[in-house]
C-alpha cells in the first residue's frame, strides 16, 4: 500500500472510532457538522455502483424534452400533447416551463426547506419516525432501517392530503415552513391535475369534457407527498450517491431543483445529468402511470450525485391516486396487440414492500409485471 493510501485509511479509521453507529442515523447534515473529512464506510458503495465523475461530464449537453404549459392550454394543444406523449414514452421525464406558479411561492418553499435543515439536530429529530405513513417524517438515506449502504441525503417528508388532517403534525419551526408548504402543495397539486388531464388526453382516454370529468374525479382526491431533500457537500463524492438508482412509485413527480446539478437519469443505457433550468419543473412518470398506461409511458431510473463544493436542495412533490385505490392498466389500453402487462396493485402492498425490502432500482414495479 502506498503511504498516501495508508494515511487515508488511518484517517477514515480514526474518524470512525469517534462515530458510533447511532450517530450515522442522525443524518448526513449532523455528520458534516461534526467535521468529518472522509466518507464513513457505511456510505461507501461497492466499486461497481459508484458514480464515475469526470471533469468533463459527457452528459453536459443533455437536455430533457421541454413542454410549454402555456402551449398545452392554448390553440397549440394538439401539438403540445404529441410532444408530451413522446417525452413520456422515450424519456419518462420532461422539463415543464411557463407553469404559472409564481417565483415567490417557489423561493419561499426552498428557503423554508433550507431553514428546516439549518435547525439544530434536537429540533429536527422531533420528526424522526419509522412509520412510513406518518404525516411528517425526517430521516436520512433512502430507507435507513433497511439500507446496507447509506446514501448522502437527509429528507423531510410531508404528507399533504387532506391538508386539514395533516397540518397540525407538520413542523412548527421554522415558523414560515407551514405556510410556505401549504401554499406550495396547493399550487403543485393544481398543476399536477392539469397535467394529468393532458396525459389522459395524450393516451387517447378522453374525447369529451364529460369523459375528462369522469376520469379526473379519482385523481382529484389523490395522495400527495412533499419531500424536501438535502444533500450536504461531500468530501469524497465519487464513493457515494445522494440517492441510489430508483424509480418513483406514484403517478407523476414534480421536482424542483435548485441551481446545483445532481439529478441523473438513465437514457439509452447511460447516465445523463439533467441541467437545472431556472423557473421550471422536472416532471417524471412514476410506476403507477407506467402500470396505468399498460407500459406505454416509462417510469425511468434516476439517481442523485453529490459534490465536494456545494450542498443541494430539491423538492419533490409525489402524486398518485388515493391510498385505497387500485392501480391497474386502463382497459382501453389493453388489446390483442398489447395485452395486459401488469397485475393490479395498491398502496398498501407498495408500503408493505418497501418496509420489508431494500428499495433498489425498479424492483417494486418488476414484482407487478405479468410475465
Ligand atoms: O434530488 C433530486 O434531484 C431527485 C430526488 C428524487 O429522486 C426523489 O426524491 O425521489
Question: Strand order of the main beta sheet, please?
Answer: 1-2-10-7-12-5-4-3
Oligomer: single chain
CATH architecture: Sandwich
Q: How many domains?
A: 1
Radius of gyration computed on alpha carbons: 21 Å
Q: Number of helical runs?
A: 13
- Biggest sheet features: 8 strands, mixed
Structural class determined from secondary elements: alpha+beta
State the total count of DSSP E strands. 14
Protein name: Fe2OG dioxygenase domain-containing protein
Domain Fe2OG dioxygenase: 221-321
InterPro entries: DIOX_N, IPNS-like_FE2OG_OXY, IPNS-like_sf, Oxoglu/Fe-dep_dioxygenase_dom, Plant_2OG-oxidoreductases
GO molecular function, one term: metal ion binding
Structure in words:
- The protein has one domain (3-368): B-lactam Antibiotic, Isopenicillin N Synthase, Chain (Jelly Rolls, Sandwich).
- Strands 1-2-10-7-12-5-4-3 form an 8-stranded mixed beta sheet. Strands 6-11-8-9 form a 4-stranded antiparallel beta sheet, with no helix packed on it.
- The protein is built from 13 helices and 14 strands.
- Helix 6 (103-118) crosses helix 9.
- The mean pLDDT is 90.
- With 371 residues, it is α+β, with helices and mostly antiparallel strands.
- It has helices at residues 3-18, 21-24, 28-33, 69-73, 77-90, 103-118, 121-125, 163-166, 177-202, 209-220, 287-292, 347-356, 363-368; strands at residues 66-68, 93-97, 136-140, 154-159, 223-231, 243-246, 252-257, 263-267, 270-273, 281-285, 302-304, 312-320, 326-327, 345-346.
- Bound molecules: 2-oxoglutaric acid.
- 2-oxoglutaric acid binds at residues 227, 229, 243, 248, 255, 257, 262-263, 302, 304, 314, 316.
- The site of 2-oxoglutaric acid (AKG) has 12 residues, from strand 5, strand 7, strand 11 and strand 12.
